[in-house]
Amino acid sequence: MTPSMQPDPGAIFAELRAFERSAALKGAIDLEVFTHIDDGATTPQEIATKTSASERGVRILCDFLTMAGHLTKFGESYGLTTNSQLFLSKRSPAYIGSISDFLAGDHQREALWQVAAAVRKGGSVTDDALAPDSPIWAVFAGAMAPMVRFFAAAAIPHVVAGDVPMKVLDIAAGHGVWGITVLQLNPSAEVTGQDWPTVLEVAKENAQKAGVADRYHILPGNAFEVDFGIGWDLILEPNFAHHMDQATNVKLFRKIASSLKSGGRIALIDFIPNDDRVSPPMAAGFALTMLTATPKGDVYTFAEYERMLGEAGFHDAKLVELAPMPQRLITAVA
Amino acid sequence: MTPSMQPDPGAIFAELRAFERSAALKGAIDLEVFTHIDDGATTPQEIATKTSASERGVRILCDFLTMAGHLTKFGESYGLTTNSQLFLSKRSPAYIGSISDFLAGDHQREALWQVAAAVRKGGSVTDDALAPDSPIWAVFAGAMAPMVRFFAAAAIPHVVAGDVPMKVLDIAAGHGVWGITVLQLNPSAEVTGQDWPTVLEVAKENAQKAGVADRYHILPGNAFEVDFGIGWDLILEPNFAHHMDQATNVKLFRKIASSLKSGGRIALIDFIPNDDRVSPPMAAGFALTMLTATPKGDVYTFAEYERMLGEAGFHDAKLVELAPMPQRLITAVA
What we know:
The structure is a homodimer. The first copy, chain A, is α/β, with parallel strands linked by helices. Chain A has helices at residues 9-16, 19-30, 33-38, 44-51, 55-67, 82-88, 99-103, 106-112, 115-121, 136-155, 177-185, 197-209, 246-259, 281-293, 302-311; strands at residues 71-74, 77-80, 166-171, 189-195, 216-220, 232-238, 260-270, 315-321, 328-333. Chain A starts with 8 loop residues before the first helix and ends with a strand.
């Protein structure tokens, strides 16, 4: 990113008000504005009737959403953009609006707005989300599954190919989407999801909906304490390493290495910044989420993962780009 | 704004997390990170020592600020951008960091995050900031003055020229900066600031600091109730009309018209969107702030102001661009 070279107090004003953009989009999703427009209600009056709101409020919100690039406007009528039609209308099979419940929910906002206190302390000053069976992970699993399907569709084909028997463990499975995608791509695979018991209820339900429940198994408990067993062909660790410091990650990687078959692979999916740690934007920026929401979480570069994996006994670490998805995949061989 | 034509779930993710950018910048201002860097502390360790924070927290925050364009990074050292040096270091006479106390403060965030409820109701669901002598306006006046100086420096020369006696009333004077700028540009002008009594304390203090207190007078009370008197050459109404609906604005414009000398002028400074109501971004987007923070406030186009002013007896309404400032000026003759 090239910082502006021109003095511009308005840019600082705008940045301090960037939270309006999150609030407006979350509000519009809560009011199902995009769905109502998709159903043919396009004027403030028509949308207001559908969502039991005031015409004035709808007009102001829809103007804001147009300014922010989520709607189009012709005369007094609003329309959907490619992205809002596909992802924010409940009529679309690709609807992901539920992510706002987690990404812009109370728990996350409360943590982020205490950034100064978290910087002083060096870690989260709010409740520890990593505490056993924290209720936040059931919210997470319910809210994020629709979006993670896109991430999993980009990542999983790199580690699963063809119709061959394989035994896969999905660590911190959450909504179960990563493992379910394995089962959908490989009819001979068996997947075991590990996570807290209440979270695995969401995963089992998603496996049921996807028609793969007969090959989806569960391993409830803490990833650091529960016995993984041995003989896995592939162990997935998606979006979990960022919650811990490097020493703790090495410890878990060692446990994973000793649970894999010889030649078996680990697959890490995560926000992985470039070596400069300030790009690409979403991967680099995610470190602040970890600072404010966890005791010792962070984002790690590929070089850091390569070192941690090497220390745990892995070799042949490879980085796989998943752009335009904001995450990356790392594989390594036990 | 051209909405993206490519499906991009990451863009929705990023928008729902835009509040991180506001939180990070406010946190950095609170920790005086920019000032410490200006003082020569450039590594996480050096900055952490200066601000009594953790090195890890400082590194993560400064990486985020670099990603967001507020810092530069070379190796492990951070530097200031043109904007952060000028506006966010307390060593700069142009420091405006205090605006974060209002723009990203509890009162504003609480209102904005209830956008769905405000859309349903058609107005704010939080405390009425327009209540007599609301404490929020003293916060506003203290926080915003440094930035408004830039806006006033762009606007006031359009309505005040030379060293000629003139009697100026500043309605909803707040920090007093608009009127004080008149006094600085015209050594023969006399200014009277009207606002709630506690707010005028801030204005008087600012007039004192600017060395113009002998020509700065006050008129405490409600703009709709207090007697303006007659014979004013110029009446300023900066950032006040957006708090009210059109009928209420016409009522105040009538009162202003009857208080001006014949040929005297009103000067409105405000967020004034284009006729499409969705551009430019900050002016258009400000309507949402008014929806969520006031009972009936809004932004109005120049055509709407021209009609309201005409109804109140003004003529020759003119729109003056103040770009790159996000506000515009309207003048009209009584």
